[in-house]
Amino acid sequence: SRLSIFRGGFDRAAAQTVAGATLPMLSSLVSKSLVRRNEEGRYDLHEVIRQYAWNHLDEDEARCVETCSRHCEFYLRFAAEHERKLKSVAQQDSAQAMTRELDNLRAAWAWGVKHGKVEWIQKSVRAFGWYFEVAGLIHEDIEQLELLVSALKEKPRDALTDRILGTALVQQGLLYFRSGQFPRAQRLYNEAIALLRAVNERAVLADALIFGGTIQHLSGAYLESKRMIAEGLIYARESNERWFAAYGVYNLGHVDSILGDYQNGYDQMQAGLKLWRELGDPHSISLGLNFLVETQVALGRHDRDSRGGSTQRSARPSRKESRNLRRRLQRLGHRPDHDLPRRDASPRGRRRPSQNDFAGLPAPRARHPLRTADPPIPRGTRLFGNPRQSRHCGWLADPHHFPPFSPA
């Protein structure tokens, strides 16, 4: 009956640690069709069987609490182990691993918050924040963190409680930041900074200062923005938080570029990109390259970089980065339209068309002026002739319009 604690399946290690189920026990249950095993080696119970087993487990309160406690500790530790991986070259693999266990992670988080397992939650707060940001589940994580914040504010205040509360506020502020709610995010960062300074939690204080400073420049407070980011950068380097060091250096350069110091800004943004490339974080690399373009244009480096090269190698993503980004877009639902010609698909040796090639053809009709602002037609609509059916294929004319990420 202990196996009924799992949600959305489980693997052998979880079964052994949480429920005490050995491999021979699992094999016996599979042979009796009480447990199912898929091709990936994961196990699960049919929902009817799981509900029956859960009712049986719930009758023994002590045994049920022990099983829930084991489940909570196992999966919160699992999340904590993926914290740094979510900001590295292993980001996609780590996000997929957490997505497979998402139902178990939600259940473990909810039980831990309800029963005050603050020591376990402390180790996993940042991992949950990073995962939900990478997965695009912004609003869900805001709600999950709000449960934790409300529970912590009701507890007696001590150093550990303030440390966890400050960390939760930082992650919640990040998600409000990503959703465009900048004033609310800034209020959360200010509250977190005050708490984290009081308990001298410099590693997480670096997060709050750098993110808070980044938001400050959006309101035009450029000097305050640089001050906060510079202080956060010191703490990030002290704590060996390389991702935040890269984020701090990059955003200092971005603010300098806004203030007109393009060369210094460009150099710092390149230094931040270099650190992200060493970590291998594809999400941050793509965003960094995007914002670097404006500074390059201001410096007049449309085709040449500062070293005089023939191409813009310093800003162009590597082949591996492009491949990782393409895989990420495919995971988000974007598929290339192979029926459309590529820009570089013209074979060698083919001559360019001349005016003589179009002689005798009727002149093209002018487009109706009211149709010049029409939205692009989805590629799926062109292929299927049905807008409703095209929504399921996820092929859009604009590559920036992706369907929302689903962990299923």
Q: If you had to describe this structure to a student in words, what would you say it looks like?
A:
With 408 residues, the chain is mainly alpha-helical. Helices cover 63% and strands 1% of the residues. It is built from 18 helices and 2 strands. It has helices spanning 12-19, 23-31, 47-58, 61-81, 91-100, 102-114, 118-135, 138-154, 159-178, 182-199, 202-216, 222-238, 242-258, 262-279, 282-298, 319-331, 379-384, 387-393; strands at residues 36-37, 43-44. A two-stranded antiparallel sheet has the order 1-2. β1 (36-37) and β2 (43-44) form a beta hairpin. α1 (12-19) crosses α4 (61-81) and α4 packs across α6. The two termini are 26 Å apart. Residues 304-315, 337-350 and 365-408 have low confidence and may be disordered.
Order of helices and strands: HHEEHHHHHHHHHHHHHHHH
Across the major sheet, the strand order is 1-2
| Low-confidence region ranges | 304-315, 337-350, 365-408
The whole-number mean of residue pLDDT values reads 76
Q: What is the C-alpha radius of gyration, as a whole number of Å?
A: 26 Å
Number of strand segments:
2
Largest sheet: 2 strands, antiparallel
* β-sheet strand percentage: under 5%
What is the terminal separation in angstroms?
26 Å
Tell me the overall shape.
elongated
Provide the structure class: mainly alpha
Q: What count of helical segments does DSSP give?
A: 18
Which percent bin holds the helix content? 55-70%
